[in-house]
Design a protein that fits this description.
Helix 12 packs across helix 13. The protein has 13 helices and no strands. The protein has 325 residues and is an all-alpha fold. The chain has two domains: 95 residues, no CATH class; 193 residues, no CATH class. The longest helix is centred in the last third of the chain and has 35 residues. The relative contact order is 0.12. Keywords: Membrane, Transmembrane, Transmembrane helix.
């Protein structure tokens, strides 16, 4: 393993020291890859156990439906493709993803212990120090919507539920434009040999089709959830459990908006020709949405979320086509 030859770009110092540490321990490249995957998967599993322990109400499920069998098959395939992509090919991205997932969980449960707060900051630094672009993208896909969600109750009482949701949507669009523009800008420094056009079919499946599903399939359910949440919030003696139940749907709405913002940005930049050399970079950014898909679908096992179901399945199929066909 030529770990000592890895040169830092200035934004991945943690990964540089990580690689060199195992180089000095005389690890082979195969052993290093195996250890990397082991650490990544341990972080995901351990963080998930913490999340389930302190947020049990988010995993309350209804009776199993017959359609769940089909959903499980597709999710198994999609999860396998996701794990194969990030823990066999995009190893540095996978490690950064694992640190970021751990950060997200420990940040959500930070009020349970001061130690959780400390670890959340540590994992965030490790994620950014491992692979900057992965961490920034996940910050836009997960952290921005979570911050909007955590401020929901306070600002809804101040400016009203509808206005807050409108502002949150446009903030998500702004975040999406920032991510996609940053992706285009920094991809120009990666070298001419990495320039590539975005395949039109991929463009459709990454942006146009998800937006059609969002506006024509999910919008009615979203409006109902917002209306019900508003009614519960205005009740003087509201049932906290009921409010929490709808909170899960609202968090999913904010996470969905984060992807929608990126999809709108992708269409905008594609239409003016700014993605003529950033196709590969766009694919790397949008495939990280599989993290959001897995989180949302794990919270909605009792019903199909068509939007996220389509996103992760299309990501998996394109990756399968690239690698195996």
């Amino acid at each position: 393993m030529r770990a000592s030859n890895y040169e830092s770009t200035g934004s991945d110092l943690f990964f540089v020291y990580f690689v060199r540490f195992f180089y000095y321990l005389n690890f082979s490249y195969e052993s290093f890859r195996f250890l990397l995957v082991l650490i990544s998967l341990f972080l995901i599993v351990f963080s998930s156990l913490i999340f389930v322990k302190y947020k049990k109400w988010m995993f309350i499920q209804e009776k199993t439906k017959l359609s769940d069998f089909f959903i499980c098959i597709v999710l198994f395939f999609s999860t396998y493709m996701f794990l194969f992509e990030f823990f066999s090919i995009r190893l540095r991205g996978g490690l950064s993803l694992s640190f970021f997932y751990a950060f997200s969980v420990f940040f959500i449960v930070r009020k349970k212990s001061l130690l959780f707060y400390f670890f959340s900051i540590l994992f965030l630094y490790m994620s950014f120090g491992t692979h900057l672009s992965t961490a920034i993208t996940l910050f836009g896909f997960l952290t921005v919507p979570t911050i909007l969600f955590l401020n929901l109750k306070f600002f809804s009482r101040v400016i009203g539920v509808r206005l807050y949701f409108s502002l949150a949507f446009w903030l998500s669009v702004l975040s999406g434009f920032s991510i996609v523009f940053g992706m285009i800008y920094f991809s120009s420094f990666r070298g001419e040999h990495l320039n590539s056009k975005l395949n039109f079919v991929r463009f459709l499946f990454m942006s146009v089709v998800p937006l059609l599903i969002y506006f024509f399939v999910d919008m009615k359910k979203i409006n109902n959830s917002i209306q019900l949440y508003n009614c519960l919030l205005l009740e003087k003696n509201n049932n906290r459990k009921s409010l929490s139940g709808y909170s899960k749907e609202i968090w999913i709405y904010f996470v969905t908006n984060a992807y929608v913002g990126c999809a709108i940005a992708l269409i905008s930049f594609y239409s003016i020709g700014m993605l003529s050399t950033a196709g590969e970079a766009a694919i790397r950014v949008f495939t990280l949405s599989s993290v959001s898909s897995l989180l949302v679908l794990s919270l909605q096992k009792n019903k199909i979320n068509f939007f996220w179901f389509f996103v992760i399945f299309s990501n998996s199929m394109f990756f399968f086509n690239t690698v195996f066909l």
